[in-house]
């Protein structure tokens, strides 16, 4: 079993997902025996609210099977990056599937690509990156917190991703990504408290043909700083967006029907299917900033591209500007769903 490939039957050493309902899932290590409190090996029995499960009984079963618990039933599923993101032990804040899917799409990732990530954190994004670039691409992920880095190495080994993921202990803002990363990457993903400090190091990592960068930040002030740094270093097509998931609830409502005939009383009422508009969309996770580094022949010696930079900003919602609010650059906040190009955006960003 690997998080990047599918197989049919469960074997010892795999990880499988015990699915009771969408809100109750567990990742189970398929081991016949586990050590008890005193270190003695005992039969591996997994407890759930619907009774116990002998893990041993899963070996040889097909992924996707319905299985019996002592007081109920569940499904045993093949692990995926998406399921792992909902289950993983949180060592840090993590990115969730809507943001991750936008990152994969905007970074133009597919099998064979080389991507650099920092920080690794809980490995939520790393799992999706790894599956997307598998089997012949590679994820180089950097983390400066020693125990997190170590845990990530162990987890990727258990999930059989070590062939496509390398986890390095390093402070990328202070030390960069290392010379061995020079001209290696198609894409870079940053989820750091101060990503603008890592951008100059990231530039060196891109292949000569350039590539795509993404940065995730919860605060607009971080976005502003990273955008200015991206622009200063010659990135183009800078775009910041926020992914909102909106649930549509379809319900039947009584609506009074319009009638132009004033003599008609009482007004007829019609039942119609409606999807009420949700005024507030909860769940701000963070802003995603994407940009392109052009091929090196079109960069100037200073790294700044000569042509005007085009900046598009999409859907930064619920940001209220008042006259007293002023941070540089104001345009990052005030322009919503607009596409600014050439001189105009240069003026607004400078
Ligand atoms: C928010 S977490 C990343 C979460 C990750 N994207 C996920 O979805 O699981 C940020 C991580 O960056 C690491 N970090 C912060 N500054 C760093 C730096 N300068 N170099 C390397 N790692 C750094 C932190 O230790 C933390 O684990």
Explained architecture:
This protein is of the alpha/beta class and 350 residues long. It has helices at residues 81-87, 97-106, 124-133, 146-158, 172-175, 196-205, 220-232, 331-334, 342-349, and strands at 15-21, 24-29, 33-35, 41-43, 45-48, 51-54, 66-69, 72-77, 114-118, 138-143, 165-169, 187-190, 211-217, 236-241, 251-256, 269-274, 287-293, 311-313, 338-340. Strands 11-10-9-12-13-17-14-18-19 form a nine-stranded mixed β-sheet, sandwiched between helices. A four-stranded antiparallel β-sheet has the order 2-1-8-7, covered by helices on one side. Strands 3-4 form a two-stranded antiparallel ribbon. A hairpin with a 2-residue loop joins strand 7 (66-69) and strand 8 (72-77). The chain is flat. The N and C termini lie far apart (52 Å). The relative contact order is 0.10. Bound molecules: S-adenosylmethionine. Residues 92-95, 118-119, 121-125, 142-145, 148, 171-173, 191-193 line the site of S-adenosylmethionine.
Named once each, the bound ligands are:
S-adenosylmethionine
In whole angstroms, how far apart are the ends?
A: 52 Å
Helix % is: 10-25%
What's the average pLDDT?
85
Please tell me what the overall shape is: flat
Strand content: 25-35%
Oligomer: single chain
Low-confidence stretches: 308-350
Structural class: alpha/beta
> Strand count, sense and closure of the main sheet?
9 strands, mixed
Q: How many strand segments?
A: 19
The number of distinct helices, counting runs of at least 4 residues, comes to 9
Rounded to an integer in angstroms, the radius of gyration calculated over CA atoms is: 25 Å
In what order do the strands lie side by side in the largest sheet?
11-10-9-12-13-17-14-18-19
């Amino acid at each position: 079993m690997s998080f990047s490939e599918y197989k049919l039957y469960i074997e010892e050493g795999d990880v499988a997902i015990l699915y009771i309902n969408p809100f109750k899932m567990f990742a189970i290590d398929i081991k016949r025996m586990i050590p008890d409190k005193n270190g003695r090996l005992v039969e591996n029995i997994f407890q759930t609210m619907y009774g116990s499960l002998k893990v041993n009984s899963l070996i040889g079963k097909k992924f996707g099977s319905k299985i019996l618990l002592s007081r109920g039933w569940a499904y045993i599923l093949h692990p995926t990056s998406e399921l792992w993101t909902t289950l993983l032990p949180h060592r840090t804040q993590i990115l969730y599937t809507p943001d991750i899917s936008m990152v994969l799409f905007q970074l133009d990732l597919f099998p064979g690509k080389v991507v650099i990530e920092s920080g690794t954190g809980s490995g939520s994004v790393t799992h999706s990156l790894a599956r997307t670039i598998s089997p012949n691409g590679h994820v180089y992920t950097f983390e400066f917190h020693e125990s997190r880095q170590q845990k990530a190495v162990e987890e990727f080994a258990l999930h059989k991703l070590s062939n496509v993921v390398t986890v390095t202990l390093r402070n990328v803002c202070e030390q960069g990504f290392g010379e061995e990363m020079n001209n290696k990457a198609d894409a870079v993903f940053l989820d750091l408290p101060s990503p603008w400090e890592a951008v100059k190091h990231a530039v060196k990592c891109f292949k000569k043909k350039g590539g795509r960068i993404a940065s995730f930040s919860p605060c607009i002030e971080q976005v502003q700083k990273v955008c200015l740094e991206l622009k200063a270093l010659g990135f183009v097509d800078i775009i910041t967006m926020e992914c909102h998931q909106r649930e549509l609830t379809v319900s039947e409502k009584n609506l009074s029907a319009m009638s132009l005939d004033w003599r008609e009383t009482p007004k007829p009422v019609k039942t119609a299917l409606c999807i009420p508009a949700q005024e507030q969309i909860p769940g701000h996770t963070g802003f995603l900033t994407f940009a392109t580094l052009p091929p090196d022949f079109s960069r100037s010696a200073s790294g700044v591209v000569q042509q005007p930079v085009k900046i598009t900003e999409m859907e930064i919602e619920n940001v209220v500007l008042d006259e007293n609010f002023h941070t540089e650059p104001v345009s990052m906040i005030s322009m919503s769903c607009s596409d600014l190009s050439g001189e105009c955006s240069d003026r607004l960003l400078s």
